[in-house]
Design brief:
The chain has 10 helices and 12 strands. With 292 residues, the chain is α/β, with parallel strands linked by helices. The chain has a 7-stranded mixed beta sheet. The chain has a 5-stranded mixed beta sheet with strand order 6-7-8-10-9, covered by helices on one side.
Length: 292
Amino acid sequence: MPGRNRNDLVRGPLPDWIATGSGRDSARARLSFRTVWISDLHLGTSGCKADLLLDFLRSIECETLYLAGDIIDGWRIRKGWYWPERHNDVVRCLLKLAHIGTRVVYVPGNHDEVFRDYVGLEFGGIELRAEDIHVTADGRRLLVVHGDAFDAVVLYARWLAFLGDSAYTLLLKGNALFNAVRRRFGLPYWSLAAHMKKRVKNAVSFISSFEEAVAHAAAERGVDGVVCGHIHTAEIRRFGDIVYYNDGDWVESCTALAEHADGRMEIVDWAARARNLAKNADKAAPRAMVPA
């Protein structure tokens, strides 16, 4: 990142859960997984839900963490610098996780394609790879990619992708305003952008075609499944012998993909979890007595 080096990111106050180096949060039990996949953080944009992401990272432990692309949004940074301290906190957390023994694998995407020039190297203990083959606890081989190679718009009409990116940025700004109003009324985060995308017929058609293309490519590679990101839509879906997994994103849905110790896979919806916790807290809160 321009103007900063790794030492700048590691120095300074760390979140409480990693300040001691133990990687444990004494205030609550952590969710334990064998493997976790996250992608499409889009650090460097106002759409990144850094607070929810940090809450997720401080709530889990895993043997392997995959960063499946679009971690830093180079497209947006080139247009104008935006990098709040919470985005630094995310980078420091990831570096700290690698430092305390989690295997962290970074598979760059199209928005952070500059890092593709460094695949095969390590940065602060984080491995950079063009793709990876992950073997689950129950012996299945999963191809791990970002997914933009299967996006015909990005691949064959780059200018159209940038135009779509601008429209998407406007939608995310509207999403931010919408949620600012919700916060004023004490309501938890809810993704207007994700809701709108699901309601648009062409977007639904594109997502389905994308999933089929990725699954077909995985079948040709002779693997049992594929994990990707890119389209900001978390999903677990079977296509014949291939299981397609998408871990979602951290600008709309705030989701991750997780593998349990026995190889079972699930989508972790952190925004929904936050909403449920808020509802339960509201129910448990004592209510003021109204005089008769």
